[in-house]
Amino acid sequence: MGRVLLPFAYHEPKTVAEAMELAKRDAGTYIMGGCTLVPSLRRRQRRDKCLISLARVEGLDDFGIHPKSGLRIGAKVVASALLPNIWAGKRFAALHEACEQLYPPHIGNMGSVVGNLCSAVPYFDLPTAALALDGEMHVTGPDGDRVIALEEFYVAKFQTALKPGEIVTHLFCQPYKPDTGSSFKKIYRSRRTIEDLHKINAAAMVTLDEERDRIIDARVVLGSWGHRPNRYRAAEAALIGNAPNFDLFVAAAEAVTAELLPATDMDWVEKTRFAQARVLLRDTIAQAASRAKSRHDPFEDATEMLEDAR
Amino acid sequence: MKTIRLDGGDTEDLLYVGKDLQKPDVTQKVTGKAVYTDDIDMPGLTEGRLLHCPHAFARVKSIDISRAAALPGVLAVLTAKDAPEARFSRSTMAEALPSFAFDGERQDQRILTDICRYRGDCVAAVAAEDIYIAEQALDLIEVEYELLDPVFDPFEAMKPGAPKVHDDVQNNIAFEMDHPFNMGDTKKAFAEADVVVEFSGVNSRQKHLHMETDSAIAHFDETGRLTVISPSQGPHLGKKHLSERVFKDLSDGDIRWISPAIGGGFGARLALGLEPVAVLLARATGRPVRVTSTREEDFNGYSSRTDQHQKVRLAAMKDGTVVGIEQHIVSDAGAYLSHSATTSLVNMQKSLGLFRCDNVFGHVKVVYTNTPVTAGFRGYGNAEGAFVLQQAIDMLAEKLGMDPIELRSKNIRKEGEQSFFLPCKLEHSKLQECIDEGAKEFGWAEKFRGWDRPRDEGRFKRGVGMSILNHASGAGGFLLEHSSAIMKLQADGSANLVISPCEMGQGILGALAQVAAELSGVPYERIRVVTGDTDVTLFDIGSHASRSMFVVGNAVADCARKINAIIRERAVPHFEKRQIHVTADQLVARGGEIYPEGQPDKAIPIGEVAHDEIYNFTDAGSQISASGSYLSNSHHPNHQAAFAEVEVDTETGYVSIIRYLAAHDIGRTINPLLVESQMQGSAVQGFGFALKEDFVLDQKTGEVLNDTLLTYTAPTVMDVPEIDALMIEDPFEKGPLGAKGVGEAGVVNPAAAVANAIYDAIGVRLHSLPMSPEKILAMLQNDGEEHPAGSSHVSGQRL
Amino acid sequence: MKMLATFNVNGRDYDTVIEPHMTLADVLRDKLRLTGTKRACTAGNCGACTVLADEDPICSCITLAVLARDKRIETVEGLAAPGGALSPLQDAFVKNNAAQCGFCTAGMLMTAQAQLRDNPRPTREEVKQSISGNICRCTGYVKIVDAIMQAAEEIQAAEGA
Predict the structure, then answer these.
(1) Does a structural domain hold residue A44?
(2) Of B601, B631, B661, which marks where a domain is finished?
(3) Of A198, B14, B276, B600, whose CB has the highest number of CB atoms within 10 Å?
(4) How many Cβ atoms are within 10 Å of B173's Cβ, its own excluded?
(5) pLDDT for residue A265
């Protein structure tokens, strides 16, 4: 737990290839904003001997968000860049909300979305949100390019499926199906034991049928419970095929908590953690469903009509 | 803020007092020019850092500093063998305490230790050319520890056979006493009473969380004299303590102590922090050394409130007359005693003294555990006590079917009655007026719907609660409670006011200058305050116990009146020159001018008199100057009544404070803007204490779990409800222009008032702080009947 | 690994020698002697070290200085006019007594400064949102929000005049 960082070597490559070369040569760690890395270096939770900044690497600043083409965010894009984007707010609301609620808000100006996802910190918000949006990490590495679904991306606490030297070039989320809504919420808790995390977060995505009275697809994610965010397929199955209503959301939330394991051996702590998770999940799913119902955008109809006319 | 003036004093003609004047140091603070300890640079300054023990209880078997010492740029690496053998307490209050309480300030700590009694105890210190080298050196020190069995719970610690935190202390009980002012026969009173209630509870270890982490510079000059620069709340006591207990080869005058700008104190800076180790390193290196700590180190090793496990019993007759009060306290000091015994004593003094009662019994035990050191925090035991006592009095009201206001009003000590603080009369109290006016403003009569009303329907339930308090304006009669001030006039009629409260942000320098301006005749904007240097200022015990406005204020008033008299006396010849024949008594010095009473058109500037006194080439030259002093021999309590309305989310357990109103018995408001700032700031600190701030130790390892500002959730702006402050003004003849203290009281009521409001909303009483969502939810899930197990073992206590 | 670096702070270029493991807060304070920016948590949790980088508030305590070399940095020292006249925001902080111990003040001012540029007519709620990551232990925040609201009004009034 130092007041300052211990010395390390530092490189500022200009290209992805150069970065990978340096990473291999010096067993370096990539750094973007450093919001997670710098404090952990100071606390001596990490002792990296060499950092490779991606700040000056060209071609990592893709930024495209559109209902038709999906969400594509390059490794260098900071979280606050999503905030003024209308499609991020309307169509990728879960991720937008998670970015909006970063604490403190300053982090959004410093930390990149991809960097946040790569930190694999168990209580982080963006992984939970991006997982609900079926996010996938597009990776380039010494052995070529590959795509890792976020669901496979998290291996253990602070550990991802990335191999040494690999760089995530961008995050990609599929375009929304019509009549889809998503949402993200979190609750802060007090820590009771060393295993406890100080919050719970949840994200959901709900797709309705054309009449908008039946759920045809769903994602339910709970994070900050264990070492990584998880999708709960039983809850998703409980939602699919049914009309969206309060009782259904409660049932889905309960389907999640039925699968959860307590983090401590303190009965009352766990009771309340489960109760709060139920409320959080219920409300998150409800909000996603309500957005699916209401966020239908006439602009898309117009575009479709135009395309049909062609 | 609203002010209610009880004596209708609106005919007064005051120039500065009662006005929203700008405090002297505010411009520095908004421009980034204020200089804090960590901002100071001086030739040859080196940087020091400490190595902390990572175990809760361990003996240092061996320590190898050779690699660290060999690192280029490292100037000294010190361990326990280099530190004085003398034991000291981090609390400097020992020097200002009477002998019966002094035992509560056990001198039990060394600067560097080879027996580590908590995670964070200091085993080695390094000084290096810069902070980066110092950090690398720390990393190279190799320590081998022999692990000892720790004890983290005060009740476990008292059991026979428990690990001994200090070898020389039986059952880890560091301090035990009956309250010195116990009286009557509580056994009999409780047996004969119509109604008896009992409530127990414990507060959390709220962290001071001053934004500036601890820091100190020590420097021996070419003559061997020591200068200490640190954010101390009481530098005069600091240097006495440092020389008396730590470095016994130094004497009081060998130390010059400078307090620069202070980034928040809240009681933490009443204790020695990094100063002793900075001195040790400065001696070893022969260079100025600054030692700094990190936020994590402040969390792990620095002070917090003491968790005081309390049981309160109240006995009353059917008509609501309280006939017996009992309070038992078991406090967890942590690894060293510091202020924890005195805060516990003060808790008893405040809790047992609020209500008129002939049968009073209090008992306190303070216990060592292998946990971080606790200390004095704004409110100094009072906030800890109010949380329990004010819930107990509400329980009594419910049993009696009385309105909480009615029961409190019936039993509070009134002006002229016996005071409980000391065997003397309560000279001034407007607590009843605080209760009445506060209730009116809050709308209590409409909002409190009785004890047997049905709870609100639905997820969100609302409730109201109240709490009252008595607090000190300085601990006169108990502490060494005197202050002095110096004022001198420059040749242009401006003045220096030399005082030694500590400006931690409360604006006290401004308020004291307002008193000086009002009474001396020198305009406020022409008074320059000199402070924070023990070579310049007169002895003072520093800023705490809401004493500065009252005690230092009275010293300033004394001094300013003397200056005013000298100015008038020296002005007489100036009027003579102008063919105006007056005596000093017929002159008025005010607002920078001197004039014969009733003839402001004949005014001459004070500057003329001040100038001619100094630049006087006859044999009568001098400078207009005076010093004033004040010795306080009583606590002169200030009081407060507070009202809270809360909304409980019964699904998540979250409590929102909807509205909070505090009415304060202030005597006189010297500066309404500063007072309102104190009221708002203390209330929000109190909300954190009530609902959020939890300092969690792992019960198996003693590790501090939330050592960051992310996981220790202090209130942010989003937690702030509507806060109303109501000033009940009635100038107290013993106060400077009638003022009493205000800074500390505001943190006392919130937890108690919010707890009572939560009960009103959901019918559940919480026994521990903070009243976090998880605890509320747990209680609700159990319908308030079955209570989840908690850490405390005091009978009847839960959570 | 010493390196020569140039930092643009408050419109002025500063050349200095840094090392990669130095944070922006360390360089501003210890190298450039701009000590108005404070280190309070050094973990990006409290906002006391807030400076503006290309007009956006960032935590200088967890930003490596090397990563800030090509940014326009603004600190509390740059708020007042060159002659020393306080900015409307600083003036409102003074008038409302929005600074007590003063340790969070620079961060509060810089965060608010960025907000008022972005959103010159904020609502009270928007002001609260924007400073929600800045911790103040003294004031209870009320006066700070008052001051920012007042500064917004005064800036508007001055521009309207």
Answers:
(1) yes
(2) B631
(3) B276
(4) 15
(5) 83
